[in-house]
Amino acid sequence: MYIVLRVARVRLGYSSVPFRNSFSNQNTKLSVSIGDVAMAIKTPRHPELVPVVNAANISQSALSHLRWMLQKDMLKQDMFLVGGPGPYRRTLAMMFCNLIQREVEYVSLSRDTTESDLKQRREIRLRTAEYINQSAVRAALEGRVLILEGIEKAERNVLPVLNNLLENREMQLENGNFLLAPEKYDKLKQNHTQSEMDQWKLQRVHEDFRVVALGLPVPPYRGNTLDPPLRSRFQARFIPDVPYQECLSLLSALAPAVESKKLSALLSVASTLQMLSQTAQLEFSFPMNHLENLVKILNNFPEMSVQELLHFALPGEIISKGTALKDTLSKFRVHTGKRGNIFIDSLKSQEDYIEISIGGASKGMLSVCGYLAEAAGNTNYVSLSQHENALAEVMLLHATGDFCIVGGKGCGKTTLVQRFADCLGYQMETIAMYQDMTARDLLQYRITHPNGDTFWKFSSLVNAAIDGKLVVLDGVHRSDIGTLAQLQGLIHDRELTLFGGERLVGEEKYDEIRRRTGFTDAEMKEKNIYPISKKLRIIALAEPSGSSNRNDILTNPEFHSMFLFQNLLQLNIAEERNLVKKKVPNVNRAELEKLLSLVSSLRSSNDQVGLSLSNLLSTRQLLRIAKRQNSEGSLFQAISRVCLIRFLPTLAKEVLEREMEKNDILPNFDVATKRLGQITCQVCNNVLTIGSTSQEIKKGHNKAGLVPNVLFYENAQHLHILEDMLKDFSLGEHLLLVGNQGVGKNKLVDHLLHLLNLPREYLQLHRDTTVQSLTQQSAVKDGQIVYEDSPLVRAVRNGLVLVVDEADKAPTHVTCILKNLLEMGEMTLSDGRKIVPRVPHQAADSERLIPIHGDFRMVALANRPGFPFLGNDFYAAMGDMFACHSIDNPDLESEKALLKRYGPDVPDFILEKLVRAFSDLREMADEGLITYPYSTREVINIVRHLQHFPAESITEVVQNVFGFDSYHEEMKTLVFKTLHKYGIPAGASPGNINLAKKIQIPTLTPTSKLSLADSSSQETISVSAGKLKLKGPLYAGSYYYPLDKLETRGLGFSEMVASWKYALDYGNSVTGISVSRSRSAGDDVVHVNTGNPIGVYSTTRNGPVYFTDLSSFYPASGRLKTECMGLPGGHFLHFSANNCDILLVNPQEGHVQSFSLKSVASRLTHQFVREQPNLYKLNSSLAEDNIAIFQETESNQVHVVDLSNKHIHRVIFPRPVENILCLDRQSWIIKERTGKLCLFSMMDDTAVLENLVEVGVKGGPMVTEALNSASTLGPSARTLGQALHMEVDEMTPPSYSRLASGSNVVAVLTGLPVKSHTAVSVHSINLSNVPKFQKRSGYSQFRPSLLSKEAQIIYPFCSSDGRATLEVIDLPSSTLSSIKLNRLSTGNENANHSINAATSSVFTDHLSDSLVVAVDSLGNAALLETSSEALDKSLKDWKRMAGLEGDHSLQLTINRESGLDVSGPKHGKVDPEGTPHVGGNTW
Length: 1483
Prior knowledge:
Helices cover about 30% and strands about 25% of the residues. The chain has about 1500 residues and is of the alpha+beta class. The relative contact order is 0.04.
């Protein structure tokens, strides 16, 4: 059945604009009939409000809808048109009003619509508040049709304000007026005058008032469901899509050049996809309203495939989801191959348009709107094949209407739009979209005149629409669909109704209204009607979310119906290579290839972690890395800095490091070492130089008050960061500093600006920061609210540095509006002004334009993303717009130097403990063991407290930081455990003092005297000198790891200072220990020798531990016994007793040099001996002098190796030597195998051997031959006197005496050096007579340590229960104390060791500060303090730290100064009568 539309008996099926002159003659009476429904047409009072609609070729389906609407209007019923997204419902409503010549009030609803937007809005006119009728009230009074679009977008309980108006045509207004139904009003007026009606404030609702609501069905579409009372007041009409045949006929008329088969295929695919979405088989619906524009493209380019057209209809991430589209295309036999590339051949300016020739896979001509085709082009633009193809496709979309470009971050969306504008001569108006943007922000906002009157001002978008600019909606993925939907009329129909009552219509409709009404342009403006330039074009820019978030605007069908889409992919590697080379001509090509290879591997990764990492390396970041590559020095460092590798999750960090290693991007240790070295900051000749980077200091400004001046203590790490910041600053980059709290981000920025003499503006963001507050700040002046420029605007205008603090605290959709400001120098302010780049052709004095100053910079400060910080991920949203710097807590040395500046009087050992404890706590926070990341700020506060109140204990002061965790037992336990690890006695008590018990032993007694025999016994010894020939260096296998040391005085106090364990391999064991002593005890290096594999662990007191594997330098067969000897500088000698080759090793670098003690012939002789005897015995007494003594066991030779002078002396003794006691470099006591004692003296190349005679004192024993080792210096005069229990001259030098020991004897030799006329006194103690002393049968396994300064001898042994024990002989106090160390480890890692209590060994040596280091066979090491004086001092310090000293009772005293003289006695009152004193205290 066909429905016929008739107007005054004339069929209007093909009338282009019906009723064009229908109201020109007031006497003309018209009527309209659709089928069997007819209605008389009234002449409109305001014909400019009648919509202009092209009613040509009205389809049968549309006529059926119009017939129904005509019926409802005749019944005076309100209508609700419900259907899918698109302009069809709105077009029907406008067509209906055009058909019956009814005036229209149009309202587009959103989440921001309020009751005042529908009823009455309060405005100020001439300082008086007035109520202005809004659309609903105007429509009711004037008899117009109120069209409400977007019913589902209005907030709940907003639309019910219309319920009574819809039902009874009644409404109470804010100004006191009451709208009354026409029949009731007319009935009252029959009995009352008009003045009475006005006095009652009654107003008549027009009988022609109708409401047409337009909405989406919810569900399946998103929005609020209809309120039942509201729904019941409407008559509903479902508006489906245009039927297939009607749509095909329409498309055929639009594209006569396209074969019907292709049109049919296109329509079939679209209809099928739409049907699948309605049956929930497809997540998206196809926007059928785009078919008209797609067919227009196809008409110009008939060769284009259906598949290529469909890619314009939806965002790429929607098309790529699932296989529904591919299956549908194959079902209709549509080609699904690779899309062909097209490009622009030429652009030619015509009179009112631009003609574009397209070449490539699809060829054709386009006529598009524009201003002037560009001839030369932008010199900064780099032509890339993908962008050229996208630019040509964008031109196709431009020919049909507005469009959206969808692409990932850094893929070139902004560049493409800029190129598009340059090609067509467009002036861009960029609008940053954000989540909280309202319709008023987008279209029109209300401001006040100086006199207080309010008025509405056009937004930049409205002005751009009138002026015909290119409107760029940047970041539409962040905006709300309700706000964006306000532009549907502008996009689809080029019509827009504003809040102030203004209407914007397209040029054709504007001209038609003028022709109808005869209005001039001035009259049209007076009627608030403005033309929209036909050259207006709207381009939306969006980023795919990559998630299935229901609120994502890119998955919203209503958004799909608004734009055609250009899907821009990430540049491929070849294009990025081309781009970087052209943008950075001097880039290192080899490093660039590594970088691009890394990016390629991450983008092609199959796991989500790799893909997320690839987003951090956008094209924009690749350019930044290339620009800074020459100054960075390391590609690894550059990538780490850009990706903020320090703050990446553990898994992401491992993936990135693994991929960098695969692509040969390795750390540059030279750069890392350089960063660990010294760096200086200096100002010379008005130039700031930090490290190797220089920048001229700014002068000549009058803003000294804005230049920050902050207390800043320089340290190495912060200076390196400042240098990196200065490099980026000099390159014109904006900076982003990301780090934990309290690491010094603000101080670094302020100090850099202070050094450069740059003024700054400061802006702190927070949760409630809005876009408006970023650009304007309200203030009260003279009783009026005025709006002033924010620090951002002032910094932009005046060329200052804007410091944006707490950038992560503001919502990212707010801070993202800064993107255009940073990238293109453009930003639209909330009051309509616009920040623009400083370009010559722009008027800098324009009130609306704010030219950006060339010196403007932005520095953003943000906390690291993720828990426990409560901010937003600012880096993920905006990171690639900045040169990023990860700010971490200072390293140990830098932090210690910093703390020393804050607390110069705080002891160094306290600072050391604090620095290391907090370093461990930060590592625990990184590993997720604790939640709070302790920073340098907390340590500084502790040190400042200790500086000002030195009497307070550190355990009390640290509670100022850890008091927050008092009720969190697990956290408290972890924190206290860490504090105890570094010797901070938190929670200690006096009962925790556990010192070893001391027992008295016999005192030193004179036992014998040593003297030289007569001169006839003197023998001359043969000494041959030679040059030491070192071979190498070779490189040994080595690695290092941090020293996990536990300071054992955390909870208790004992002789043990610290303990740690060496990471021995399975089956390995310790075979010896030696120390490289230096002037500073902190630089001493402990060398621990191991047997399987043969190697040495070397470590300083605080680590790290270096392991040098020396097994490759020894025969593979047999288990060798090796020894090591520490040398000054941290090096060591390593040798085997049955090998004549000696190794000189640098453990930090892994360098090994060697020399031989034998000639070539001798070595060949020993080479063929299967079982070689122990050839050599090492004497390390002179190690501190860099001298090693090797004694041959099979001959009378002794080799003296001087490593300082690279000499070797070979001494041949007349008889076999049993042992050597080195008194100093020139004097040795030689014990021959016959038991004979001799004094060996050597000067240069001559040596003399003299016999020694030992005579017992009062029949005492001869003990010298029992001595096995001696010190090279003796104790001080005071200590020597205490040990000998006799007076010793204070001027007695340490060389006067020596400390010596044997297996069961200790002795002190005095009267040195040995001279012919004097005797050396020997005072000794026989330890065999001491009951508690462990008896020894051998010496080598239990070699004692001699502490000459303290006159102590340390004997190590293992007790029967497997515990390492040190017996300390303290000669000054004549006491013996046994110090038991930790039990030998029995962990699974050493389960197969053949070591038990019976076979285990303990090895000891001492450090420069007389601390003793002990290690057992399983690698359990301990550092001990044995000196009585040192223990007393340490115990006092420990008690002070633990707060166990002094009286802790408190007293409150209030001192009041009277100002009176109190130097003499008080003078009482004087009795003038002289009356005798009778008591009291006043006379």
